[in-house]
Structures
1.
Amino acid sequence: MNIDIPHHLSDEELEAQLKSLARGEQEATARLISHLAEFDARRLYLGAGFSSLFTYCCEVLHLSEPAAYNRIDVARTVRKLPDILRMLGEGSLSLATVRLLAPHLTDDNHQELLAAAAGRSKREVEQMLAGLFPRPDVPTLIRKLPAAPSLPTPPVPSEAAAIVAVSSLPVASPSPPPLPVQTSRPVLKPLAADRYEIRFTATADTREKLRLAQDLLRHAVPNGDVAQVIDRALTALLKDLARKKIGATDRPRTSRGTAPGSRDVAANVRRMAWSRDDGRCSFVSKSGRRCNARAFIEFDHVEPYGVGGEGTVENIRLLCRAHNAFESERFYGRGRPSSANSSREEFAPPPVPLPP
Ligand SMILES: [Zn+2]
């Protein structure tokens, strides 16, 4: 099969074909799952010389181990509830959301649960399930990790590593779930509608700061509850960030403004633009979709600064870094540094966020 990068397509053709290919992939996945379910039921892998469907999938179908595991898990759920195949084919459920739902699906509730999960992301389904099937709070736990010589970047000093587990309510729970000895990925998972388990690895330095904060807060939080201490710390951090980024203050002064012709955006303009755009990227696509990103937000001149655009509330909007660069390219053409039109440093594509 000869597949090339489709340089020749127009933008519209490229987007249309991309959508059609994604639909095709969803249908193909649903078909693969349906065949895998029947293959599993007939246990044909045994006759083919494999002791398990998993090994067969890896060695004969060339699926990666996680891909094989996910597909087999879903195929076994589908054997009990074949309705799921249609939803997988339409793309209203994904392998990930089916796997989350599977342990909770019963003859009585499956229609309702599947309908409620349709079209939702993995994170949204996780949140929905936590609301419907709340789990007990995890106990607050700080544990010293054993030496971690093989942890790659960033290096964690072996004698200093600690896991901090925080539940948002200080409630004793029957038995703590076993923590992995080493974890390089943080955990943030919903336990119930409004409670989360948060777990991460911290340095000895961070642990010391936590202890100090607990001690200094004894008057307000006598039991030193970590969830409350962290909440106060984050509140203070957000207030500080708001002050630095948007000039938010409890006592706004009349602005001295900025020098005529300056690229700087005055603090009162920042505050008003921030509040008008709700602290989110205000870019709206041709089809009317607003971006709404909250990360890498920048103040942008609607009429570019380079052609005399002023730093007024009407001419200042919030854009995420990617859309700021996109608008700048649209105006100036590619190759021109996007900072030509913004009050910030150079452009670098924002990192792809890690899945939770
Ligand atoms: Zn954006």
2.
Amino acid sequence: MASLTFNQVYQRLLRQYGPQDWWPGDTAFEIMVGAVLTQNTSWTNVERAIGNLKQRDALSSSRIVAMPHAQLARLLTPAGYFNVKATRLKNYCVWYESQGGLSKLKRLSTEILRKSLLSVNGVGAETADDILLYAFDRPVFVIDAYTRRLFTRLGLVEGNESYEELRRIFESKLARVKDKVGVFNEYHALIVHHAKYFCRTKPRCQDCCLQHCCIGAVIS
Ligand code: SF4
């Protein structure tokens, strides 16, 4: 069975599902808030929490920093783990304000910005890369559990690589792509879609558009 290249997998998923229009959010700051809140919950729940912040006119870093913890946690209830997420979001906003906000952060190189994001308590590699790619338009490939599962089943990675190793593999395999930000944006969204509906924990290989080139396909 001939395996596809990373670029061919992208083309096939794009043909199958079309553009996913990620990341939902009206502003870069809203995208950042979504990235911080989306850990361990569905996007619908994140939207409800962001809706609460908007309703109180509190979707800004200064308002979040000024808000008492208990009030912020109440508004974030739909996103789950609301106490932890209130602390994380406040940490993020304190950092964001201390850095001078969007216009100053935009001037930083990707490497320095990534390092700075990772210094925020509660921001891990995946959240930092979501923010870099979707809020700052930086060419950074986001790795998540869906990506690891799909590409392991396809036989394109071992599956036991570290986050950074996987990110480096994707970025080097897609090094020749011209519009890296556009492709990385779409590719991650397509992987999430494919893994949610087809390459699930119990995969639906029978209906999968990648079945003919997947060494992990289980077809009865
Ligand atoms: S054939 Fe099955 S295991 Fe392979 S990508 Fe599709 S759903 Fe996943």
